[in-house]
Amino acid sequence: MDDEEFRRRGKEMIDYIADYLKNINDRRVTPEVEPGYLRPMLPKNAPESSEKWDNIMKDVERAIMPGITHWQHPRFHAYFPAGNSYPSILGDMLSSGLGIVGFSWAASPACTELETIMLDWIGRMMALPVGFLPFDPNRDNKDSDDEEEEEEEEEEEEEESSPESDDESSENNVHGSITNGETSHEQKQSRHIGGGVLLGSASECILVAMLAARTKKITSKRLADPLMEDGHILARLVCYTSKLAHSCVEKAGLICMVRVRQLGVDEHFSLRGKTLEECIRADKEKGLIPFLVSGTLGTTSCCSYDNLEEIGEICQREKLWFHVDGAYAGSAFLCEEYRYIMKGLQYADSFNTNPNKWLLMNFDCSCFWVRDKFALINAMSVDPLYLQHKHAQKAVDYRHWGVALSRRFRSLKLWFTIRSYGIEGLRHYIREHCRLAKVFASLINTDSRFEIIGDVTLGLVCFRLKGSNKLNQKLLLSLNDSGFIHMVPSMVNDIYIIRFAVCAKYASDDDMSVAFHIIQEHSKDVLTEYRAQRV
Ligand code: PLP
Question: Where is the composition biased (Polar residues) (predicted)?
């Protein structure tokens, strides 16, 4: 393909995408194919010689589209939204076109600097605790009284922390070596040592938090007792999370080779301090070493919220790393009325949210903030000669902030989308989804055969037919098999629930009514069949 053909085909592709999204309603939500459907439709071997572009595009319709689940369909209510918007698509297009790999500042300065600025913008849009944001003398010196007070409180909290936490905070050095209390050059230069990075997924953010927390705890234990071996400490580490936390916490535990305790929740499906405290006490009595708590704001199962204040106080007292996963719910903090949910976030050492879920960014785009960037860098820093550059002491090198070396120019889509919508436009989108969830919940409440489980605060409604788990499994199977609507289940405190997430970008009141009527129709059939079988 030469330049001229690329211009033509590129324009055609934009038309193809715009038509696809405009007419998505005409399609089934879920495909009707069986596993292995694609292999017989494609040649066994890759083509030896070049093929015509028209033929390739014909095969998209013939072979690929039949196997697509249409996440942008107005009747798609599964999981959480898959963010998408035209400015975001264009941002990714430019990123692909530039074809850069931004692992260090020198590898493409704009890639690194725009990313830092975008994380800063979003952190401020969400009113995250200032400790997560890098210090900016032009901005922070002009901050409001409120923020100055918050900063002072945070500084006081830091001062109050105990000798062990002093040990832990003094282990930092840009390239990961232990300094025995020396404050690094970078630390001396800025009051704030927080910052943010874009990673590929929430799972990656949680893994990275766990790696940082693990290194920090092992290092502090080794400093306290130099004879203690890393392997011996590792074998005793324990992470805590709720049983409703996303399975990626458990997976991070597998990768990091640490125990993960999945703790019970209260009647609001929230992890409480008392439960955590009792488990920590029991573990310490067994000689184990608690090192991390991963709390959730907006659980995947039912969008419940752990009690960050209670958990945070315990983490501070026990010197545990406190990570907070707000993969979905974090976007709601753009709106002041939902910020009550993040009460207690000031205790967190790290926080993640996915703009590629609920902030109109297409995949992938996960934001991760950390209060002490050196704790992260210590866990992940290696420094071969071919990656070094002369600005390394002054610049951010994101290769030290995550698992991957090579990184896409993800911040372009954030920049394009935030500027195109404005914060007000993004808030409007969030508020509409929250309003529509309430509309859907009120429709469910009009029919006494159903019940709602949990609170409806954001864009998720969890409901079920009053009756057995099996009955609800049958209902969901019937709905999903129809191809008219798509939802997924969850289990909370042994109750099988059906999750209805408001997902489509332009979701409307009509969409809520249509979904409700489809659910009613299928419920009628399922109940009739169920009763007949039981007689
Ligand atoms: N955390 C929460 C609360 C989630 O809802 C999800 C996915 O839905 C994840 C983590 C994992 O997200 P990712 O697919 O970005 O790894």
Answer: 172-182
